[in-house]
Specification:
- This protein is 71% helix and 7% strand.
- With 151 residues, it is mainly alpha-helical.
- The chain has one domain (10-150).
- It has a two-stranded antiparallel sheet with strand order 1-2.
- Strand 1 (100-105) and strand 2 (108-112) form a beta hairpin.
Length: 151
């Protein structure tokens, strides 16, 4: 593999995953985490309002960190755990596919709740960043190079 390919291959993964988490966190924040807390209460999560705020903050701040490549390993671990919890408590009962067609009307197809596919894609992407690092175009790499020059 060319050196250039190795240097930028993590960038698209970081951009998509980071933006995705930020978008989901922003949706929770704009609707009010109390609404998300009701869902958490229904599935038996302890301290649902606190957990809703913590999840919202983690998705926004963690997503931003992944997007710019800052502290990627550290923020990826709780994000993977969050995806695992969502996968097993909410999505697993709906199967694998993210798109579950449940009917067809004159207005078009009707879709049911998504399965675990998207959760697994997020987890796989985050694990790839943990193992492979954030890539050359990242705050982590820039910071490490600056520290090495200072020694």
């Amino acid at each position: 593999m060319l050196k250039l390919e190795k240097s930028w291959m993590q960038l698209p993964i970081r951009l998509v995953i980071g933006f995705g988490f930020m978008a989901h966190g922003w949706a929770k924040l704009s609707r009010g985490p109390a609404g998300f807390a009701k869902l958490l209460h229904q599935i038996g999560v302890p301290a649902p309002l606190f957990t809703a705020w913590a999840a919202t903050f983690l998705e926004i701040a963690g997503g931003a960190a992944v997007l710019i490549g800052a502290l990627v390993t550290y923020v990826s671990v709780p994000l993977v755990l969050m995806m695992g919890v969502a996968m097993f408590t909410i999505h697993a009962r709906y199967g694998f596919s993210a798109i579950n067609t449940i009917g067809l009307t004159a207005a078009g197809p009707q879709f049911g709740p998504p399965g675990v596919e998207v959760n697994l894609l997020y987890i796989a992407g985050l694990l790839a960043l943990i193992v492979g690092g954030p890539g050359v175009f990242s705050v982590d790499t820039w910071r490490n190079r600056s520290l090495q020059r200072g020694q």
